[in-house]
């Protein structure tokens, strides 16, 4: 069976999802989990796009050992140089260059002739090759490009040193048979095609990204690009967990293997959902809450008689645990440490102490602490960048009743150490708290999105809230957990404001290149 390489772009194309912006520590946690999941390559970002992206790519390149780390670059020397600066510490660095080849993009976006595009691509692939052993070149909008032009430019960039040729369906426009035909055409019409690996990269605008990726593989692609949970620009990218499980379950039809450890699927999906705030719908294939639920009596009866009657994927295959009860009030530091180890999460001694305190506080209110709770606590602690100069909630109180106006009183510690307090009303408790916080915080705030969900089930489950705020006109996301929904909501709100403060402090998002 031939081996298909899995190229994950959650941290680059996935991070381009509207409303997603991960900080460096969050990116690092996702990168470590992708390494555990066993992806062959991870695209860590687009270093020339901002200082923050550069630093995150560098941190990932310096940390990840068993997966090739790659970065996106336009076909311009300065992007290639910046990518090299970010990636040179990596164990297996590679670069991903892209240039559009469709008439629409060349005419209206690039304002270049096909000949100019060809020359630029060849020149920049040769330039990148001086630094990188592995050079991937993508023909952006390949699926709407002229096949003959595509064949010619591919031949030339392979001669210039490209080792991977990616043919993206940038706008999610193609169909499985059409996309498959494009790969077949290149296999048959590019004389040196065997000197490079062919890669597919599909967007999901028409809901066909996974099907298109599999069609590409049937026609010669040996690398599949995609994201965890299918997040990405617009309707997202091909969902890697769906691709991986399809290849596994239909191994009779697809004679290919991957290096993925499928039992890490669920955890990878959960982590990405938690840190991006993009939760998967209940009926999402492979990782949705209902993916293994059998509702109808006939189905339940069949599964009880023989699981294979209605179950083609087992929960165990993708690491879904049904029985993950772990610690309680009487669990001590040792049991806690052992459990963290068992979860496979590396935490410094200092952060372990903070996590243990949070765990102890939780056990005051919650009898049984599950793997999911623990994972939530650990990720909160691991990705917290707001230890200095932050707004801190010292106390809040909400009066709510169906017969009176919800009123919140908040006592807040400001970054310069003052304690400030006020009270406001709202239509509901959350609005009352948010209006009070808004009153106390000097920044100009606008709430764009608000979500609340529970971690696992049960009446005493942890509440998790995600918000998106505009702070002084800049969009920032925030995340907060607590046992109470109002407290979780307040924490998420403050977390967004504090992230903004940190961002201002480090000038992290100083955009260098915005035009592609
Ligand atoms: O969809 C696309 O074309 C891309 C390229 C940058 C490869 O993401
Ligand atoms: Zn893309």
Structure, described:
By secondary structure, the protein is of the alpha/beta class. 39% of the residues lie in helices and 21% in strands. It has helices spanning 24-37, 51-63, 77-87, 103-110, 114-129, 147-160, 176-189, 209-218, 240-249, 265-276, 297-305, 333-342, 349-363, 371-382, 429-440, 485-506, and strands at 2-3, 5-8, 41-43, 68-74, 93-100, 134-140, 164-169, 197-202, 223-226, 256-257, 325-328, 368-370, 392-399, 407-413, 419-425, 445-455, 462-471, 474-482. The chain has an eight-stranded parallel β-barrel with strand order 2-3-4-5-6-7-8-9, surrounded by seven helices. The chain has a three-stranded antiparallel beta sheet with strand order 13-14-15. A three-stranded antiparallel beta sheet has the order 16-17-18. It is globular. 3-methyl-2-oxobutanoic acid is lined by residues 13, 72, 98, 138, 140, 166, 168, 170, 201, 203.
Q: Structural class of the secondary structure composition?
A: alpha/beta
Given the structure, what is the number of helices?
Answer: 16
> What's the number of extended β-strand segments?
18
Overall outline: globular
Q: Provide the low-confidence segments as ranges.
A: 508-516
Strand line-up across the major sheet: 2-3-4-5-6-7-8-9
How far is it from the N-terminal to the C-terminal residue, by CA? 38 Å
On the 0 to 100 scale, the average pLDDT is 93
Percent range for β-strand residues: 15-25%
Task: Characterize the biggest β-sheet.
Answer: 8 strands, parallel, barrel
